[in-house]
Design brief:
heterodimer; A: alpha+beta; 3-methyladenine DNA Glycosylase II, Chain A, domain 3; Alpha-Beta Plaits; 2 domains; two-stranded antiparallel sheet; 12% strand; elongated; B: alpha/beta; Rossmann fold; 6-stranded mixed beta sheet; 4-stranded antiparallel beta sheet; 14 helices; 19% strand; globular
């Protein structure tokens, strides 16, 4: 009985002593933190993906609180809704950005791009890219080792087994930019998200001259400028034998898709054309007239 | 018998072509000369399309201290200055020349006669190696004049000549020592004069007894040079390993051989220096070994730079059936060619045609922490850890663990029982770390 009492008494004594010491230590080393950081942190998605350029959501919250304006700060995962929440917490002006989505700018599946040699080194695009030009004739296209899949925190990319190319799941993609930075060949680009996830883009990054590009891959952009001539919105530029469609200027009219001789411009999520053949002919004529 | 103490492996030697004497390879129909065939800044092209060039004429000029001149190896007309495929499959700037006749510029002494009297002064020799575009012919192609220009406050005490050729299969240095022994000896004396040292060691592994005997005999006529026979162990041909093995000095981490008073040159470089100084001949040809288990006629060719490697393979009986890989360089450090339409460059020491079953990598398994890679690493690193850091992009840790000391010998990958691609990732980590350091120094 006695033993129990002594134990209880001594333990409570040690406990209260420790509590007192801890209290004073906590007072002495108190970290004064802006309470708004916690509030901002709460409205952020909490994905800690680093897409904003800061280490985790808390780092971003601190940056939001400490900066004068929110102009350079944007959470791609949360998007405009999240940023307006942040702005209302801080009483600053919200910035809105068009939602973006990652697109894979390479269509070089084995069917289009024949294999010239065999790679059996480490399964990593970065390693392969540092080592050599790739197992096809194209030195710009996708390696298919899937570094982008590994780096995606949102499971928004998977490898298509048939085409050996990565595929982005639009709904899951948060445009955090991780895959864009990871890809050693700069194939992935963030483009503006359109209604119904419609997309038109040049699915090629080859800067080879037309003949060489075409020989290596049947769906390569050969820099023929047919799309440039047909575009009514001046959205297309051709540099280094490679066409580029400006996602903001593009009005999704699909004229370029029809005239592309190598089918390197892709249209995605559009309804089927009603009278495809006729349209094609008329577009071709238009090119010839010009 | 001497060797370096730390790590090392014993890959099968397979020196199949060691009995094949050096043959002078026929002039090709056309050559392609890349402007970046040495370590350092690519040379600047100074010829244009349709220019007529002669053998030995300078066609691309060194563009910095660490860079090298490039001379035309053939006479003929420049047909193109454009991007051509290099050994890794990327397109790089190169000069294409169509061969017409074989006209040499007059200053080159084409005779085979041995010239032993060295008339140039030390500074003149260094200037000559720069002018003649001499680079290290062991494989790394580091411009030789840089190694010969001793930085202020340092002093060269000993010259080491690398006749190790520790890479399996390759035999070009071996044949060089046997057939051009006298010239190599004179070359070594020229290098000694340039560095102001009075003794030099030629290191040769004991698997080349004929070369050891031949060069030892010659040392009677060339005072100050001594032949050292070494135990066979890969990678003894690495600079730092060779210094440790012969003079027992250890190059500090991040340092250069000159920090311990040593300078290392390859026997091939010694020969090239001989030709440049005594014969006024720029670096326009080199010895290339074509070998492999199924190659009909393995050979050592003396080839003009720029010759398509496909021609060389054809001369050895063509690509044998069932060839899986053609490796540019030795099998330990070399790189498989992405195609055969590439030219011989200053760094092409050999081509190894590997049969299919041997050429494939085995499936990668998990690291079992056996520590074999740590045991064999000649630099005392921990490859398994470095690989993991590189995979996880922990570049700070890589730098702290001295990844830049890695000499990329591949002993770790060779020995790994789980077939892990250790060197691939370490190389990636090295690239990243050196980039980080460079950008930090800029700030």
């Amino acid at each position: 009985m006695n033993t129990i009492v002594i134990t209880i008494l001594s333990l409570s004594l040690i406990g209260s002593l420790a509590a007192i010491i801890l209290y004073f230590v906590a007072q002495k080393f108190k970290v004064i933190e802006d309470p708004r950081i916690d509030q901002v942190d709460e409205v952020l998605p909490g994905a800690n993906c680093g897409g904003c350029g800061f280490p985790g959501c808390r780092g971003f919250a601190e940056a939001c609180v400490n900066s004068e304006e929110l102009a350079d700060l944007f959470c791609p995962v949360g998007g405009n809704d999240c940023m307006s929440d942040v702005a209302s917490v801080l009483g600053k002006d919200a910035v809105s950005k068009d939602p973006e989505v990652a697109v894979i700018r390479c269509s070089g599946s084995p069917e289009h791009r024949s294999q010239t040699n065999f790679y059996d080194g480490a399964v990593s695009c970065t390693v392969a890219h540092n080592l050599y030009a790739g197992d096809t004739g194209c030195q710009y296209g996708c390696f298919g080792c899937g570094d982008c899949v590994v780096v995606c925190d949102f499971d928004a990319i998977y490898m298509n087994e048939e085409t050996k190319l990565p595929v982005v799941i639009d709904d899951a993609c948060t445009a955090c930019n991780a895959c864009v930075e990871e890809c050693p060949r700069d194939i992935i680009e963030l483009r503006r998200k359109n209604k119904k996830d419609r997309k038109i883009f040049v699915s090629c990054v080859s800067m080879d001259k037309g003949g060489i590009a075409k020989k290596a891959c049947s769906v390569a952009c050969i820099g023929c400028k047919a799309c440039l001539k047909v575009c009514p919105h001046d959205a297309i530029t051709v540099e280094n034998f490679l066409a580029y469609i400006d996602p903001v200027a593009c009005k999704l009219c699909r004229k370029c898709v029809v005239v592309c001789p190598t089918d390197s411009i892709l249209e995605i999520n559009f309804p089927a054309r009603k009278i495809k053949v006729e349209k094609e002919n008329s577009a071709e004529e238009a090119v010839i007239k010009k | 018998m001497k060797t370096f103490p730390k790590g090392g492996v014993h890959p099968p030697e397979n020196k199949i072509a060691s009995g094949a004497g050096i043959e002078t390879f026929a002039l090709p129909k056309s050559v392609v000369i890349p402007v970046a065939q040495h370590i350092g800044a690519p040379a600047t092209v100074i010829v244009q399309k349709n220019d007529l060039v002669k053998v030995g004429q300078i066609i691309a000029q060194s563009s910095g201290f660490v860079s090298a001149n490039i001379h035309s190896p053939v006479s003929g007309k420049v047909t193109k200055v454009d991007n051509f495929l290099d050994t890794s499959g990327y397109k790089r700037k190169a000069i294409a020349i169509e061969v017409e006749g074989d006209e040499w510029i007059d200053s080159i002494d084409q005779s085979e006669q041995l010239v032993t009297d060295i008339s140039l002064s030390a500074d003149e020799i260094v200037a000559r190696t720069l002018e003649m575009g001499i680079v290290g012919l062991g494989g790394a192609t580091f411009p030789s004049h840089v190694k010969l220009s001793i930085p202020k406050g340092k002093k060269a005490e000993v010259l080491l000549i690398n006749g190790i050729e520790c890479e399996p299969y390759l035999t070009s240095d071996h044949r060089m020592m046997l057939e051009k022994g006298e010239q190599v000896m004179v070359g070594v004396q020229i290098l000694m004069k340039a560095l102001g040292v009075d003794h030099a060691f030629i290191g040769i592994e004991k698997n080349k007894p004929d070369a050891i005997i031949h060069l030892t005999k010659l040392t009677a006529d060339f005072p100050g040079i001594k032949v050292i026979s070494l135990k066979v162990k890969y990678p003894q041909g690495g600079e730092k390993q060779l210094i440790k093995a012969i003079v027992d000095r250890e190059v500090p981490s991040g340092g250069l051989p000159i920090d311990v008073g040593a300078v290392v040159h390859n026997v091939g470089t010694a020969f090239a220096v001989y030709e440049a100084v005594q014969k006024n001949k720029p670096l326009i040809e080199r010895i290339v070994t074509i070998t492999g288990k199924n190659v009909k006629k393995p050979a050592n060719f003396r080839v003009r730079l720029g010759t398509p490697v496909a021609d060389l393979v054809e001369a050895c009986g063509g690509v044998p059936d069932n060839t899986g890989k053609i490796i540019n360089g030795g099998p330990m450090m070399g790189k498989a060619l992405a195609n055969l339409d590439v030219p011989v460059t200053k760094g092409t020491s050999g081509l190894v045609l590997v049969p299919e079953p041997e050429s494939r990598r085995k499936p990668v398994m998990n690291c079992i922490r056996c520590g074999k890679c740590t045991q064999v690493c000649p630099m005392g690193l921990e490859p398994y850890l470095l690989m993991t850091y590189a995979e996880l992009k922990r570049f700070d840790d890589l730098e702290r663990d001295q990844v830049l000391d890695c000499i990329e010998c591949g002993s770790c990958s060779y020995t790994c029982p789980a077939n892990r691609p250790l060197l691939d990732y370490i190389r990636l980590g090295k690239n990243n770390v050196s980039q980080i350091i460079r950008s930090r120094n800029k700030k």
